[in-house]
Design a protein that fits this description.
Length: 376
């Protein structure tokens, strides 16, 4: 009988978000008959709490400096003590450090890349050296979307042979009962005739919330039955607070609702009529996959891997970044046509079932893990 493999998953962020949710899903769902799973985080937070709740072996090794060689040596000792067979890292800082640890400890390292080399809206320090160390010392690089491949090969100089595509997967949840949805409507003061357009995204620069508020204002002027739900962690309020002030000045505080971080996002998605995304940069966003799984039509900016999820005119509409008036028109068109919303939502659900299941994602990671360990 084959012995279990010892897998270490490492990430630098513990806030609620897409990459962090992928880490949580991998750690929770790897086959425990085949793998012993440990997780190392750079800092405590939401992800630590979630992993502990599910009984995952998780440790915090704090690192706050840009280049922390002490962290590298500490992680190397951890791998030696736990007899780690393979490391899977997520996000640029963790990818860099784990690539170095893998080289020093002669352990295969699989990095998971969730975004472009440099994301618009972020000032990423030391990109060149992080990319150099990750590219040269990691064993394999998982990209979450097909569109990333060309950039990492041409700009990042990664070998095509070192790249694997594994799209993010989700659990498909049953629709909540009507009483649960009624309770949500009462909580949010949603009327019977209201049409709900929702966005799920933390208030980070690449998510384009300023564009979203502009679109929402245009739509609300043209259709008095529409309300917007903005769902996501507001971080320190640097982005959210000025937008709330703008919404108040426009007299739309009862039409554009800031809900903050919610633990009931799957239920809220079923409450929506339309899902909207105004990001200026994306990898493969879990939010639109989850919206498809809830059978909602999607209107989104055509950035990153969004076009791998949204087929224009079939399960929603793709709009060029900066096309606020076009996006507003698409939203109003869907708001005015319930049969179109239903048909697009059904198309999206069927595609999501075929392409973005949790089982498919986990199986691909497990096969890759085994293959890289056996080659080591």
């Amino acid at each position: 009988m084959n012995r279990k493999r010892n897998i270490l998953i490492v990430t630098e962020s513990s806030v609620p978000g897409g990459a962090e949710t992928v880490v949580l899903n991998i750690a929770k769902n790897l086959n425990r008959d085949r793998f012993n799973v440990s997780v190392v985080l750079f800092r405590p937070g939401w992800l630590l709490d979630q992993l502990m709740e599910f009984g995952v072996d998780v440790h915090v090794m704090e690192s706050t400096r840009s280049f922390d060689f002490g962290f590298v040596m500490g992680l190397r000792r951890f791998c030696r003590d736990r007899r780690i067979n393979l490391i899977n890292s997520h996000l640029p800082g963790a990818n860099m450090y784990c690539s170095m640890v893998g080289m020093l400890a002669r352990i295969p390292v699989i990095t998971t890349v969730h975004n472009e080399l440099v994301m618009p809206g972020y000032e990423e320090r030391f990109v060149t050296i992080k990319n150099f160390l990750t590219r040269n010392f990691a064993t394999r690089h998982v990209l979450v979307a097909e569109y990333l491949k060309d950039e990492y090969i041409t700009k990042g100089k990664y070998s095509a042979d070192s790249i694997e595509i594994i799209r993010n997967g989700i659990h498909f949840r049953p629709q909540p009962d009507e009483s649960t949805l009624d309770d949500l409507r009462k909580e949010l003061s949603i009327g019977e005739l209201d049409i709900l357009i929702g966005n799920v995204a933390n208030f980070d620069p690449p998510k384009g919330h300023n564009h979203l508020v502009e679109v929402a204002a245009l739509v609300c002027k043209k259709n008095p039955q529409i309300k917007f739900l903005l769902i996501g962690d507001e971080r320190d309020g640097e982005i959210a607070n000025p937008l709330k002030e703008k919404v108040a000045l426009l007299g739309l505080t009862d039409r554009i609702l800031f809900l903050g971080f919610r633990t009931d996002v799957p239920k809220l998605l079923y409450l929506l009529d339309i899902f909207v995304l105004t990001s200026i940069s994306e990898g493969l966003p879990l939010s639109i996959i989850e919206a498809k799984a809830a059978a909602k039509p999607i209107v989104a900016t055509d950035v990153g891997g969004v076009s791998e999820v949204v087929a224009d005119g079939q399960n929603g509409y793709l709009v060029p970044h900066g096309g606020e008036s076009i996006m507003a028109d698409r939203l109003i068109k869907l708001a005015n046509d319930s049969s179109l919303r239903q048909s697009m939502g059904t198309n999206g659900y069927e595609e999501a079932r075929a392409m973005f299941s949790m089982e498919t994602m986990i199986d691909k990671y497990q096969v890759l893990f085994e293959r890289m360990i056996n080659k080591a």
